[in-house]
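Quick one, probably user error.
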């Protein structure tokens, strides 16, 4: 079977076929690059007008100054928006979200969390997400939508005044944007840690198998 298929129906390890389709791998790595660029440039912008009593070290920021940070942020923003939209549309059209992320139950979440904390959570079948993974991946999609919308509210508060008003105004939108950024950073830390703990999942996201 060609790895360029958009379907997950035949992505079973038992058949020795693709676990992560090519389109998933492509949007995943583009999103990874875009998120890192946006976070680092966002920290540069934040340092120009901090919300809290701390700033980020220059070694982890991008752009060198406010104007440079804004240019990098806008460039990465369009990349993330276009790629993220492609991911959402394709994920819905192929039924991947329904198959991978649903259902999520409180009982399943508690059980898988307990198993994860005791080191007994199985990772034998990479084609199926446990409830913890389902919650994390579904949650990061919501976070991604909120960070884009709050970012638009900050970028064009007059043109998008109704959107800005939904967030409670410009100042509140900035806090929402910061919290969503922090959530993405937290997700990336957990995501990378789990990938290192289960190397075959990282291999599948690179080779598809």
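Nope, works fine. Designed sequence:
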């Amino acid at each position: 079977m060609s790895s360029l298929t958009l379907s997950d129906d035949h992505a079973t390890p038992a058949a020795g076929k693709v676990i992560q389709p090519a389109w998933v791998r492509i949007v995943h790595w583009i999103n990874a690059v875009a998120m890192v660029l946006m976070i680092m440039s966002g920290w540069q912008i934040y340092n120009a007008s901090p919300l809290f009593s701390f700033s980020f070290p220059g070694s982890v920021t991008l752009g060198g100054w406010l104007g440079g940070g804004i240019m990098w942020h806008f460039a990465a923003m369009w990349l993330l928006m276009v790629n993220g939209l492609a991911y959402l549309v394709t994920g819905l059209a192929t039924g991947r979200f329904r198959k991978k992320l649903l259902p999520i139950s409180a009982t399943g979440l508690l059980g898988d969390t307990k198993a994860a904390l005791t080191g007994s959570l199985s990772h034998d079948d990479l084609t199926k997400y446990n409830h913890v993974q389902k919650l994390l991946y579904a949650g990061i999609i919501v976070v991604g939508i909120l960070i884009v919308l709050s970012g638009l509210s900050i970028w064009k508060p007059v043109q998008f005044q109704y959107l800005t008003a939904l967030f409670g105004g410009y100042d509140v939108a900035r806090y929402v944007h910061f919290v969503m950024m922090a959530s993405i950073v937290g997700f990336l830390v957990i995501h990378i840690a789990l990938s290192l703990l289960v190397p075959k999942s990282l291999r599948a996201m690179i080779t598809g198998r």
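Residues 4 and 22 are 5 Å apart (CA to CA).
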